[in-house]
Amino acid sequence: MSALIAEDELVHEDDLVWLEDISTLDYVRQSLDRLPTRRGKPAYHRDGRMVGYAVLGPRAKPSRSSGTFRRRVFWLLPHDRDTAPEGLYTTGAPAEAIDPRTLAPGSKGCKTERSEGGPLSSDVAQLLP
Predict the structure, then answer these.
(1) What is residue 54's DSSP assignment?
(2) Closest CA to 81 of 124, 31, 25, 125
């Protein structure tokens, strides 16, 4: 979950790759997955769809026990707001949901009024690209 991701777990991120236009998404779910490589599109084994992933730099070290790398994956489930606007998350958002406009390599991002299902305040809009 996003709340459980610490900034120090993201220090080796070089880039975030988006597979979809994030300007239309109120939120994405993020998780740290154990993956066999630093770069490239990872395999996806959840319901729903992967919308992006992190790319790690050459200084990222694999786990001593598993040989895998912890990389962020961004995803959505079939019942999320983008496909079910009147569904479970008409307001509010899952615990691991983050406004994708607040994400950057090495930064875990944050929730905003938009990601929680409300209108985006002018104060927050000024902070977003």
Answers:
(1) E
(2) 25
At a CB cut-off of 8 Å and minimum separation 6, what does 43 contact?
none
Identify residue 66 by its one-letter amino acid code: S
Calpha distance 72→30 (Å, rounded): 6
Q: What is the DSSP string of 15-48?
A: EEEESS-GGG-S-EEEEEEEES-SSSPPP--SSS
* Cut 0.85: pTM above it: yes
Give the C-alpha distances (Å, rounded to integers) separating 54 from 17, 34, 38, 41, 59.
6, 12, 9, 9, 14
Q: Which residue has the tokens 């000024």?
A: 126
Rounded mean pLDDT, 27-43? 95
Is there a contact between 32 and 12 (Cβ–Cβ < 8 Å)? no
Q: pLDDT tens-digit profile of 97-117?
A: 999 999 999 999 999 888 888
What is the C-alpha separation between 19 and 51, in angstroms, rounded?
A: 5
45 and 57 Cβ atoms separated by less than 8 Å = no
Residue-wise pLDDT tens digits, 65-79: 999 999 999 999 999
